[in-house]
Specification:
This protein is mainly α. Helix content is 79%, strand content 0%. It has one domain. The two termini are 37 Å apart.
């Protein structure tokens, strides 16, 4: 155990990438102890990525990239300005609302930070906000991406924990709302303390137009329900409502109705059993292509090619990490390291509250050093069996793990959101870190609520019959 984990930590500290560190540490362990022939290692590598749920990864990444190049992020930003830009600290509130909407398309914090975050930071700087304030709120709101469905970390966790990904998606909605409210309250307090004003005039016409777009989207499931109640089949009712919505949007040229429909289509399709979460990722890509090529006509074939190559590059890096982590996690089990850690934790406490406190501390630290995907792949086989023995629901545990790792993305030495925003804002990593620190307060409050009030996470999937 010391050789395996010690070699991994040493290699990572000297600057090797996480995946390479895991591969080399695994190789050293195999050479030293000869626990398995090479063919078994190759089989474990293949088994790590040979998974139907993992197909969602490239498609959700592609959907987020397509939304960026199709100009959907700009439309979301304009919609958010009309909705909340008139409040004190308006553009900071816009930053949060824009991230909430974009999170329903991308599923990753990095896509949020690099996509709509770029627009938001520039706008806040142009309106006189300190660059640190712009970076801080952008970083905090980017953590919403993997909490609201769809979510790439939930896909990886669901695969590792053998948990319904649809249940995880539904479980993230109320915690996502809690986090959003915490951040908006924080912005309101900062605006009061620092004297931030509004950034857009209060125009009842613009506010009503934005509210109308929300009503149009909300009317979609209502219309479907009414048509089904009148005797139409569900498929026909959805088709009629969708055609009517597209025609209405084309006629009135709404700012963001079609973008707002993305999470409705994904969540509705999974709820009605039309497609699995993996197939929902394909549906997200098809919808993104429709918006970019047909509705907005803002997507060029050059942009489409760039989005495809960016997706290939990102997917390759993610799956490389999953492959390395699969071998590493398997060796942790073979070496009895997982069992030893489990026995040590259970020997220390059998109280679920104390256990979750320890998990939060441990995963927060791990999140500062490990990539999210690698961290989930390594720690879930170790910690989840303990959580289940203590009566903690695996869906609830998945939310706790994911949120901790999202907070870890904001910290050095390996916080990827930290480095992305440092480049975007042209700030040093040190200044970017200091800008993010105040925003950890609402995130930690939300983490405590989600950790110790399981109903916040489990109520919605239970009501929908996804978990018992």
């Amino acid at each position: 155990m010391l050789l395996l984990i010690g070699a991994f930590l040493v290699l990572m500290l000297i600057g090797l990438p996480v995946a390479i560190s895991m591969f080399v540490a695994s190789g050293l362990y195999l050479l030293a102890y000869g626990v398995a022939p090479d063919i078994i290692v190759a089989q474990r590598m293949i088994a790590g990525v040979e998974s139907f749920p993992l197909l969602a990864v490239p498609f959700f990444i592609l959907a987020g990239n397509l939304m960026n190049i199709a100009g959907v992020t700009g439309r979301i930003y304009s919609f958010a300005v009309a909705l909340v830009g008139w409040m004190k600290g308006g553009l900071a509130q816009v930053n949060i609302i824009g991230s909430v909407i974009f999170s329903g398309m991308s599923g990753t914090a990095l896509a949020d930070a690099a996509g709509i975050g770029t627009i938001e930071i520039k706008a806040m700087k142009d309106h006189g906000y300190p660059v640190e304030a712009a970076v801080g709120v952008t970083a905090a709101s980017a953590t919403l991406g993997p909490i609201f469905p769809p979510s790439l970390p939930f896909v990886i966790y669901g695969m590792m924990a053998n948990v319904s990904i649809g249940a995880l998606f539904m479980a993230g909605i109320i915690p996502g709302v809690v986090m959003t409210l915490m951040m908006m309250i924080t912005v309101a307090w900062l605006a009061y303390k620092k004297g931030w004003g509004s950034d857009a005039p209060f125009e009842i016409r613009r506010l009503m137009a934005a509210s109308l777009e929300i009503l149009v989207v909300a009317a979609f499931p209502v219309a479907v329900y009414v048509m089904v109640a009148l005797g139409l089949s569900l498929n026909l009712a959805v088709l009629i409502a969708l055609v009517a919505l597209v025609a209405l949007d084309w006629y009135y040229d709404f700012s963001a109705v079609m973008a707002l429909m993305t999470p409705v289509i994904l969540i509705g399709g999974m709820t009605m059993g039309w497609f699995t979460p993996t197939e929902a990722a394909v549906a997200a890509v098809i919808w993104s292509l429709f918006l970019g090529l047909v509705r907005y006509r803002s997507m060029t074939f050059r942009g489409l090619a760039k989005a495809s190559f960016d997706t290939i590059e990102t997917t390759a890096s993610v799956l490389f990490i999953v492959t390395a982590a699969s071998v590493f996690a398997w060796l942790l089990t073979v070496s009895q390291a997982a069992q030893l850690m489990s026995d040590a934790i259970l020997g220390f406490t059998d109280n679920w509250i104390v256990f979750l406190i320890l998990v939060n501390i441990l995963v927060l630290v791990i999140g500062c050093f490990l990539d999210t995907i690698a961290a989930i792949t390594i720690i879930v086989p170790i910690l989840l069996p303990i959580a289940q023995r203590l009566g903690i629901d695996p869906v609830h545990f998945g939310l706790i793990i994911t949120l901790n790792l999202m907070i870890g993305l904001l910290h050095p030495p390996l916080g990827m959101v930290l480095f992305v925003l440092s480049r975007v804002a042209k700030l040093s990593v040190e200044r970017t870190t200091m800008a993010i620190l105040p925003w950890l307060v609402p995130l930690f409050i939300a983490l405590l609520v989600i950790t110790f009030i399981p109903a916040v996470t489990l109520w919605l999937p239970t009501q929908m019959g996804l978990i018992r």
